[in-house]
Design a protein that fits this description.
Layout: H1 3-13, H2 24-37, H3 49-56, H4 60-72, E1 76-79, E2 83-86, H5 91-110, H6 120-134, H7 138-154, H8 159-177, H9 182-201, H10 205-226
Antiparallel strand pairs: 1-2
Length: 228
């Protein structure tokens, strides 16, 4: 087992007590999803079945069902006779994920109606981002940025759109983990988020959509450049 695998497994052992609160397959998938999105298991890393089963105290069948669930979500991928690996995101995937973000997030702003808008979740996420940036907590900053854009999509008040953007952002997080200096990319997102929220606070949904579009286009270029 590699050092990085051992470190990731030591983190996931602390999740064992949480398994009592959910049904087996879903709760294992939830915990693995969180650890992968947080970067404890890096893109391309093999997920060792026996070690994870031992760490979480679950059966191999339960773990494999969880892997199948995460495969459908495009978080992991399974290779015949080799095992299950954290999915690696390429440039075509990144471009497609941003097209999905444009469709979902911009539509949410376009359908806001008349101000004032309910922005509590958006404002909370930005405060968390700024706090994480002050503490130079780049993993926390990345999570807060995901929450910010999740909250943007949630303004549409459409459960399916919210579920879809959650999966899109989780996939995209894998692309951020794969670049050499993710903190530079993460840090640069804060200015765009502030501008979007400022427009929303002013009640100008059209300007908010324009700023969001520019922000997403800039982020896409940055991420594609980082992936070479």
């Amino acid at each position: 087992m590699t050092t990085s695998s051992a470190t990731a497994l030591s983190k996931i052992r602390t999740d064992r007590t949480r398994l009592e609160r959910l049904s087996a397959v879903d709760r294992v998938a939830q915990l693995l999803r969180e650890r992968i999105i947080q970067g404890h298991f890096a893109p391309g890393m093999r997920l060792p079945e026996q070690e994870i089963c031992t760490a979480l105290g679950v059966s191999r069948n339960t773990l494999r069902e969880s892997f199948r669930l995460l495969t459908r979500e495009r978080i992991v991928e399974q290779h015949l006779n080799k095992g299950t690996f954290v999915r690696t995101i390429g440039p075509n995937d990144i471009a497609d994920l941003y097209r999905a973000r444009h469709i979902i997030e911009c539509a949410a702003l376009r359908g806001l109606g008349h101000p004032p808008f309910r922005l509590d979740a958006v404002e909370d996420a930005l405060r968390d981002s700024e706090q994480a940036a002050r503490e130079r907590d780049w993993a926390g900053r990345a999570t807060a940025d995901m929450c910010f854009h999740q909250a943007i999509a949630d303004l549409a008040k459409c459960r399916r759109a919210s579920e879809l953007i959650r999966r899109v952002l989780a996939e995209l997080r894998l692309a951020v983990h794969a670049i050499d200096a993710p903190h530079h990319f993460i840090e640069s997102q804060l200015t765009g988020d502030r501008e979007i929220l400022a427009s929303l606070r002013s009640g100008n949904a059209k300007e908010s959509e324009r700023r969001l579009t520019a922000h997403l286009d800039h982020s896409l270029r940055q991420l594609l450049n980082a992936h070479g």
